[in-house]
Design brief:
451 residues; alpha/beta; Aspartate Aminotransferase, domain 2; 2 domains; 14 helices; 17 strands; 39% helix
Length: 451
Amino acid sequence: MLRDALPEIHTKLPGPKSAAVIARREAVVPSAIHCGYPVVMKRAEGAIIEDLDGNHFLDWIGGVGVLNIGHCHPEVVAAVKEQADKYFHGMFNVVTHEGYVSLAEKLCEIAPVRGAKKRAYFTNSGAEADENAVKIAKAFTKRPNIIVFSGAFHGRTLLTMSMTSKKAYAVGMGPFPDGVYRAEFPYLYRRPTGMPEEAAIDYYVEKFQEVFENASPAAYVAAVVVEPLQGEGGFIPAPLPWIKAIRKICDEHGILLIADEVQSGFCRTGRMFASEYWKEAGVEPDIIATAKSIAAGVPLSAIVARDEIMESVPGGVIGGTFGGNALACAASLKTIEIMERDHLADRSLAIGEKVMARYKEWLAKYDCVGDVRGLGGMIGIEFVEDKASKKPAKALTAAIIAECAANGLLVEGAGIYGNVIRFLAPLVITDEQLEAGLNIFERAIKTCAKV
């Protein structure tokens, strides 16, 4: 059975059948949509991808956090097939379908946003969810500006490109919308040299408040948008004392707090939503934007907020043709059911413990491993030229990724310096597969770092 298989490579990569499709891809698809992996999917189950040439790859990328319940979960496949026999689509502004309503009810039940009565609606991608969250905040506050952070990734629409920190994602795309201002995110591993961690929290809070002086008065700020655990920025958790301080500042100035849970939601961090960690510390966001693993690979995203915020939006400002598509809602309802029934948040914690324990061994053994960090099963490992200098080892990181792929393990980079490898394996991965992947990863580090 494929879902229980181990990584196995028996051809030169890419194999001949895969190479032929990759050549066709290169002829008709823009090269800007780059793929550095020698894999053409034939089928996939759980945490395993089989290519056209019969090679088996262990998938630690999961469609970049989309497949928390794994590839082709049979119950989700059945739910989508059942819905497809009834109808594919009916725009929600034209006809009501129960799947949309049921999913909105479920998200209002489980999303940890501030307020007793909540409302939810659906879009198609993480970028759309983030952009809609900002629109809602502006409608409610009647203010024009937002604050985002260094290292942030929020998408590739015009607004979300402006919100995203790394401008390699926006080359030649200006002019950008006004009113997007950036504060420094608490990247504690790279805090000022010699600064204790506790002092660093105060330092980053002060840097945040400087935005009110240097960019936008607080009275003009509609929202602060923050990832509970930065994804593209390097898998950096927002420290709880820092987020508590940000919440307090927001409340003092009537600013909404938006949690971008596009990548961190749906059991990835050991909670259904990463902002549940905030709630345990006494902090709740006003709005959650989420996507990726919400529907096991069917395009869907969601925005959840309390009633008074949602009801402030004028008619026609939000919505869209495909938002809350019937097939996607069916997939999402079954996905959440499986996550709750099978306790995948607990599984994420167990996986995270095993991975973090191994990563910490490497941290102690290898001078090229600078830092390991994360929440639950969302973990980053940062590579440096040496621990003393902390100089980012971008070339080494790329070499490790390629070496892993050559041996049947798919991992992906991240980080503002391109020197972090992220762990996003499906939470249905078996213990044997996890161990096999860790072994491939460590051998790649030894080979590429020559240690």
